[in-house]
Design a protein that fits this description.
alpha+beta, 5-stranded antiparallel beta sheet, about 35% helix
Length: about 1500
Amino acid sequence: MAIVEENFPRGSKTKDDKRERHANEKKRKVESLFKNSAIKKVNKRRLNQKKKHSKLKKEKQELQSLTTKEKKVIEKEKIMLESIEPFTFKMLAEGMQVLSRVQEVRELDVLLSLPGRIQAVVPITNISAPYSKLIDMLAQDEEVEAKGLKEILTEGDLFPCSIKEVTNDGSFKVTASLNPVDVNSDIPSTALCKGMKMTAAVQSVEDHGYVMDVGILNVRSFLTKVPDQDLAVGQIVSVCVTGCQIDGHVATLTLSTVESVKFKQNVELNLSTLIPATKLHVTVNKVLPQGLTVTFGNMVGYIHKDHLVNINDSVSAYEKSANYTAIVLYTLPLVNAVYLSLKSSLVKPDLNVNEKDTIALGQFFEATITESTSAGLFVQLNKKAKGFVPLRHLSDNQDIFEDTRALFPVKSRKRCRVLYHASLDDIYICTMKKSLITQKALRYEDFTVGEILEGKIDSVSPAGVSVHLGVNLKGFIPKLHWADDPRLKKPELRFRVGEPITCRVLKVMIDRKTIHLTCKKSMLDEKVVAYSCTSQLETNLALKGTVALIEKGGVLVSFFDGLTGYIPGNRLLKNGITDISHYFYMGKVIDCKVESINESGKVILTLAGSGLTKPKSLPDKPILNLGTIVECKVERVYDAVEGNSSGLEVSIPSLETTGLIPVEHLSDFPKAASQLLDCYRPGQVIKEAVVYTSSKLQTVLTLKPNIMNFIKGNGYPKSVDEVAMGSTLPCVATLHRPFGVFAQLLCPPNKFDVLFPPGKMSPNLYSYMENGTMHMTLEGEVIKIDKEEKKIFLSALSAYAPENAARVLEAYLKVEEKIKVHLRESSDEGLKNLASLKLGDVVVGKLLTEFDSSADLEFELPHGINGIVPAYHHAKKDFKKNDLIVGSVMYVDPIMKKVYVTTREDVIHCITGTAKFDPRGKKQRGKIILNMDYFSLVSITDGNAKDVAFTSNIRSINETSVPLPPPFEVGAVVHVAINFDTELGRIATYYTTPKRWIILDLSHIKRTSSSSDGSPNKKKLKKDVVSIEAKSTKAKNKKTQQEQLSELNDTVDSETSAVLEVNNKKTKTKAKKNENKKKQEAQERDVSHKKESVSNGKRSTPEDKETAHPEGEKALSPSKKRRVEPPTPRKSKKINHLELPRLSITSTFKWDDDMTTLPLSTSQIADSSDSEDDDAEKGKAVVKDRRERAREKLEEAKVNEAKLSQIEEELNNPERAPVTTDDFDRMVLASPNSSILWVQYMAFHLENAEIEKARTVAQRALKIMSFREEQEKFNVWIAWLNLEHMYGTTEGYESTLQEAIRYNDPFKVFRQMALNFEQSGKFDDAESLYTTMLKKYKQNKSVWINACLFYVRNSKLDTARGVFQRALSILDKKEHIDLISRFAQLEMKFGQVGRGKTLFDTLMMSYPKRTDLWLVYIDTLTKVDDIESARQVLERCITLQLPAKKMKTIFQKFLEFETHHGDEEKQDYVRKKALDYVESKTEAVDE
């Protein structure tokens, strides 16, 4: 609220001044010896002194006889200002409170009229705190009721405002605030009293009134509701205090909207209680030429002649002691002055509420000049209206400003034009510039739609062209309107800045202060009528419009002033247009006619005859061969929001044509297509793309990997005759019908339509495609071919083929990796970190939801990344909201932008373990740890080696759109087989078909059979099941025939009993199997690796022996096993031979029969004899193996001993870096007072996400370290505070901070933490600490300097300047020199060089003999590359009369400066100056 005056300590007088005065006195004494008149002069001086003493005595006697009131009047007259100055732009300062009048209310800001004919802008965020809160809630898409600015503010309202920013670059821009927090911030709660007038904002609406926000701490206020009063939240109101109750530090106010001019009688008025807009009873004390001096209460006020009651009043018409009602305009605390106004439009604003301006803006006048001032001319427009012409509006020629009084004499008449009305001063601002007088339009309201204008191009951007239409008038040509065909590749070549341009007004937006224009040649024709509303239209009226939106169902056409019409797709089909997106393009000019106008005002259009001409942008193109693989280049990326179908517009250089890649053709996976679209940029080259559709109008390419691989493998048929029954073909869905789904099969050089019957598709997929989701990749098996009618029927049902499932999952993981690569190149730090996370990475985040043991937990990682801890992975049961969660990454979903994290120790050890085995092709036991749509994450443990694998949950590409639910729950134990390793991870499939999938397939078979016969056929059902299992067998060669028979038995039993039950005998068999398995494993451990026999190209494993006994079969007894099967891996091969004939056994076969009762075939007997011979040879090899094992054990013991010795040497090495907890414990035990070791120990725990252990280390360090090591302990305290702030809670940080302050110097703690926060980018926390230090240590100069440095470094120059001014007013004057010098350096380095130079110049005027300050000034100018200014300062220095020692330093500095920044001539000049100085001093000494 106060204008801060810069205060600099003054220096003492120079010695030269003293010498000169002493010499003058001597001269006068010498002259007095020769002149007799000197005695008379002395006598006259004595007489004058006697007269003065006598006058003083009389005045004292008169004062003693006066009353106290008369004495106060005399004292007031002494402190009165000698002249009354008008309010000018230079008097504005940040934080100043001024009366304002709402001149114009716009959508996003408010224009205010201030005294002195100044205008200010109030952004929507500076209205009030409750209103800003509503805006923030609206920005976050919350449902709140908020009124617009035009509903809560009215033009003509009077409010005090606070100046927020003043631009001194010549633009005269002022930013203000109406927020009561800013306006009333300087009013202490103790100064509140009854009768005060202030502004308040509605905080909430209650039943009987409103809770108000007055912007003062510890003040509550309430406004009683008045009938017919409806205020909104955030609305500001001028109120009067009708009741004030102060209880300690809390004040309670009762407010009223009824105006009052009375204060409490016992209240002394001061500047803090006199807020602008306060009305007072004043008495005229003096009448001056510039205005009136008035008194009110115990204070003096001033009224400028521009603010008398009427605009044409003269000061001489006012008499002394006359009483008036005045309103406070502004206050100047430095001079203790209050400026008021007597204007009736301000004191009684209700009188002029309904009055309209009698003068229209833009009107011309032959005005009479009444007064000429330094700011401009006052003119009389008519008898009642007065105008003002600012200096910059006198003429276009800037040279006339030097002699305005001669060129514009008083009482002369000049032609002028009204620009706007300054409502607060009630005066019209005019111009005499010829450019503005001749300009057609001055405001945006002066333009009409359809008007043709001439302008100049101001700037060119990708969004459009900005056009200069006149002074303070600009227009904009949108991208769609900068040419008839707006698809310009280089618009900057067509539109050059500064060139003239002819355009036409499309739409006038007064609220936004802009005009939309068009420069399409077809629209500039005057014959094109500018229709702007539906009332001007009629049926069959011909129109010319611009395509503004292209949809699948039609085209939206725009005309003038926002008028639009719609051409439905069926109307376009009648004109022969089938492909809308490629016949039309955005911005195309078309001829159409009105077909109808609905009651709602919707205009339906049809194309006119001229609209059917072929577009020039689509020339005839040769029809390309389908299936051709070409290279293309991305020209443009279409998004759905642009009105076109999403996809890529590409150019095909080899074919000299363009094409389109729809977004659905970027991938086989629909959920990833939109994300892949963001991965492409214009100019990117696509090496391989398949021509999918080719016509004269368009060429469509596809990047679907399934079709690409199909083309490369030459697997496509060239005609219907080549299509084979049972073959699997990839195709693309095109149309959904009740009798099936049509798809297109690529058969180069043609395409065929195929049909998927509903019974040959899963119900979920069929219903999903019913919603219109086309272009989906499908794989189908040919089930029927009609070669005569060329019809092909496919089935989308497929059995579980592990290799196919693994291939589909690998393709999906590659798509995710491509998206991650794109995210790593993003400018968003959050997306970069998301894409860089890998399996097993440790992350820390804050919990966002309340804990629920049965639900997933959502938490937030750094940079706004969303994390999820599934319910299975809760490590503990006491999570709370805002707790820190530490876990390891299981999976990163780049499509949904989520990270799945586990906190279970067993899972963490598994995903961070290193696999040391190669389990490919073998049966592995694992556990489901995460279920996703396309895969399950399975943890596999094999001894000490641990690993995870992505196990596919999709059996074919058909299930990517509607994935099946996972066949197993999280935590279930499953058997999987690793198919192959990739860079993205291990990919696995289920070792056997999950039972859920078998039941699902059976339901499909039931549905198919019931739809054909009406009832299920069990024989046919069993046949279909066998066929399903047979297909599964072909795809999975790892299974034995006995396993297949077991699975077939399970399937048949499940269908006949409707549920899959476990047989009681199965449990017994399983127990026997486990015994046999253990014995067999013990036998195999004694057999060397070389003598293992291979069955079917695979080594036999314990799992193979387990599978040799299917469920329901009795195991062989140990005695029979020894007799029939030798203890070698060849045993599994013999059993397989025994089992093979069982496939052909008749129905009298019983599963419970002993396998040994089966007769042996001749081939089996031969195999048995061969195996016995082999066993004899292998027995000898066992002995050799034992010796080799003994030798290996001895070598292993030697290796272990060498390792132990190496470990001992490393532990004894003093330079070894600690890597374990024991290492750190040994080091801190040896050096307990070293803070570096303790901090490293804490960092070690933080790297392992062990926050609690790091906190314990800090506490332990502070207990162990010696009390004499204050600095070392201080370092640990700071490390602990950083830990709590980054990883702990707010409460923990606050308690640690208080404890650190108790044991250390608080100032050091605050300063160090502020520096740490600033270095880590936490500016809000650093600012709060600096604010605290400025309050607690306000007499410490370094605090103010550090605070200024902090604000300057973070681009808050205005705040730094405010802190600097506060420091000058608080610190002792002896501290000012260093403070001013330091801040001037900051200003020159980071702010405005001119301000810094001004500070230095003012400082050097007061302290010219401080050579250290001169040198700092010169060095600072040199650092900011202001060489010329530095040279000028040095020139000033060498002219100073300083001691020779200091002058020597200055000359040395000058010579050094010219050596680096000057030339030889300037160096010689410095040497000459130094020589002249020495000679002058020598001559003075000689004299």
